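your task:
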Amino acid sequence: QVQLVESGGGLVQPGGSLRLSCAASGSIFSIYTMGWYRQAPGKERELVAYISSGRRTNYGDSVKGRFTISRDNIKNTVYLQMNSLKPEDAAVYYCNAQRRGTTIFEDYWGQGTQVTVSS
């Protein structure tokens, strides 16, 4: 079992920045692919970014060049640095930990943190 706790959400003006953190506990953090997803009211949950155990990253098209995902395997934490925020970035942001293998599939979610982008 992996427990995930997000923090860092809040209200920011358009063009501003926020850094989200997700602290993991309960298992070996470094072996998981860590991701950030978001869900706005009335919309489906979408991938924001993920970082693999080998630190390979991938981003959703709408955040490329503005958001950066990183991980600290000593602190068991994954971060999402969000710059140049737009009103359409407003959503609940969820942290995800996932591990896949031939006989293994693990998928864990945090409780979410609200990001509001408004002037």
In short: The chain has a mean pLDDT of 96. The CA atoms of residues 77 and 111 lie 15 Å apart. The longest strand covers residues 91-100. The chain has no helices and eleven strands.
